[in-house]
Write a sequence for this structure.
């Protein structure tokens, strides 16, 4: 079994390849989902057994509208979250169109809210995909707070003793709620790092000094990656030109202290001052990705879509995992770390 962590620029999309031309899609990035659809065509996917949208922020849900159109009549079940942005999201509007046209049955649509136990989303003789958050109270509170990240769906994929954790844009607060039910961390081989390695903590509070705030953030991140999650590898789905300061140095440092190996889809100015010099790479782009080998600039003349690992392909077996081209990618990062303009956060001293 293979899992693709798709390079969609700033956003998240994950595809679980089930064999027999079937797949599960978890989020579809933003824009028109060209990259996601190209990957599904590359693997000759004919049926999506599940299309899952973790929450309604555009960089997770918008591309799903194009996927829904492309796979019209070939999606078994749609799982989505009710959050404050759901009513106006492009994906929900497309779902409504399909329902009203009779091309989609309301019995195919399920709500991403867990019950007393993790909720089973998909199961066959090899794997189990379950929803571990949110519960209904967390969902209601997030709607009241008008923040979809507070209720982002968190899913876990199991094959034998191997696990992959899809954390969406979940926050420290949501993980505190999750851990109220558990006495030990989630152990996983691969983690999709929450919120693109961005801020998952509460903002600096009134009266809280800068040093106290920084200490609190460090302590909360260390708690997240020691007492809530134990991961081997952390996939950071990030866009070169994002203006959210992803990946955050605080998060990358916490991953390093927890011995989690970060693998970013795209490179950002957080890690290299001369991004254009990194387009000519020794690591070719061999899977569909939004990254380009030719000059690509924003309207404000900032580099965009410069690959780091680009689309990441993980092979999941009963006895372990393997990450395609992992050694070559790490060697490329090591070279960047010693070159002019390079200061990758994943190699920074903690």
């Amino acid at each position: 079994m293979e899992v693709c962590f798709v390079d969609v620029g700033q956003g998240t999309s994950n595809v679980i390849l089930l064999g027999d031309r079937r797949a599960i899609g978890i989020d579809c990035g933003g824009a028109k989902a060209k990259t996601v659809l190209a990957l599904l065509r590359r693997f000759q996917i004919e049926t999506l057994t599940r299309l899952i949208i973790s929450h309604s922020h555009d960089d997770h849900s918008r591309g799903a509208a194009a996927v829904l159109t492309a796979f019209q009549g070939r999606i078994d079940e749609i799982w989505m979250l009710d959050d404050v942005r759901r009513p106006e999201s492009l994906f929900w509007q497309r779902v409504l169109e399909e329902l009203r046209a009779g091309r989609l049955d309301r019995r195919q649509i399920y709500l991403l809210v867990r019950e007393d136990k993790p909720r089973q989303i998909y199961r066959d003789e090899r794997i189990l995909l379950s929803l571990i958050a949110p519960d209904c109270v967390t969902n209601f509170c997030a709607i009241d707070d008008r923040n979809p990240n507070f209720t982002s769906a968190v899913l876990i994929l199991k094959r034998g003793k191997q696990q992959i954790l899809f954390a969406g844009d979940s926050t420290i607060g949501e993980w505190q709620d999750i851990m109220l039910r558990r006495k030990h961390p989630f152990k996983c081989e691969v983690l999709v790092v929450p919120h693109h390695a961005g801020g998952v903590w509460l903002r600096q509070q009134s009266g809280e000094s800068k040093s106290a705030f920084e200490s609190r953030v460090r302590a909360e991140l260390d708690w997240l990656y020691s007492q809530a999650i134990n991961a081997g590898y952390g996939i950071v789905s990030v866009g070169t030109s994002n203006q959210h300061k992803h990946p955050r140095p605080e998060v990358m440092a916490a991953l390093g202290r927890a011995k989690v190996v970060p693998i970013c889809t795209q490179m950002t100015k957080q890690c290299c001052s001369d991004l254009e010099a990194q387009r000519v790479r020794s690591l070719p782009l061999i899977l569909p990705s939004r990254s380009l080998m030719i000059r690509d600039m924003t309207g404000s003349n900032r580099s965009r879509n410069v690959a780091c690992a680009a689309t990441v392909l993980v092979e999941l077996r009963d006895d372990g995992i393997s990450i395609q081209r992992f050694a070559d990618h790490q060697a490329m990062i090591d070279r960047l770390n010693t070159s002019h303009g390079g200061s990758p956060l994943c190699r920074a001293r903690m």
The radius of gyration is 19 Å. DSSP finds eight helices and 15 strands in the chain. The mean pLDDT is 95.
